[in-house]
Amino acid sequence: MVKRSGELREDISVLKNGHGLITCINFLEEADAMKAGRGFVKCIIPPGCSIGYHQHVGDFETYYILSGVADINDNGREDVLHPGDVLVCKDGDWHSIANNGTEDVVYIAIILYNHEK
């Protein structure tokens, strides 16, 4: 199956009580993921915007930073991610991501179900 860029579902919204509008381009839909997960997206966070602090229950999420500088909160610990850096938020963990820089933060986010439960 080939999907062209113009065919991908794009969501633009405020996420998890964060600030501003975040663009999420869904490159794999949940229905096509063989019950592996619910989120396979390229996210774009403009300067001054964020995804609010939230918990993962029944799934886990990985971020892979493509460009920009992201300020993250990983279970209460603040850190900065640069291109090539990865954040893993396990089932039960909390996290947030913010763009306090001057260029878009672009990253791949994958949310997989925890099948161990």
Describe the structure concisely for a colleague.
The protein has no helices and ten strands. By secondary structure, it is an all-beta fold.
Description:
With 117 residues, the protein is mainly β. It has no helices and 10 strands. A 6-stranded antiparallel beta sheet has the order 1-2-3-10-5-8, with no helix packed on it. It has a 4-stranded antiparallel beta sheet with strand order 4-9-6-7, with no helix packed on it. Strand 6 and strand 7 form a beta hairpin. The chain starts with 8 loop residues before the first strand and ends with a strand. 21% of the residues are buried.
Mind sketching the topology for me?
Elements: E1 9-13, E2 22-26, E3 37-45, E4 50-55, E5 59-67, E6 70-74, E7 77-81, E8 86-89, E9 94-98, E10 105-113
Antiparallel strand pairs: 1-2, 2-3, 3-10, 4-9, 5-8, 5-10, 6-7, 6-9
- Output the helix-strand order: EEEEEEEEEE
Q: Strand-residue fraction? A: over 45%
Shape: globular
> What's the helix count?
0
Helix content: under 10%
Number of strands: 10
Q: pLDDT average, as an integer?
A: 97
- What does the largest sheet look like? 6 strands, antiparallel
- Indicate the radius of gyration in whole angstroms: 14 Å
Based on helices, strands and strand pairing, what is the structural class?
Answer: mainly beta
Query: Spans of 5+ residues with little confidence (pLDDT < 50)?
Result: none
What's the N-to-C terminus distance? 31 Å
- Cross-sheet strand order for the largest sheet: 1-2-3-10-5-8
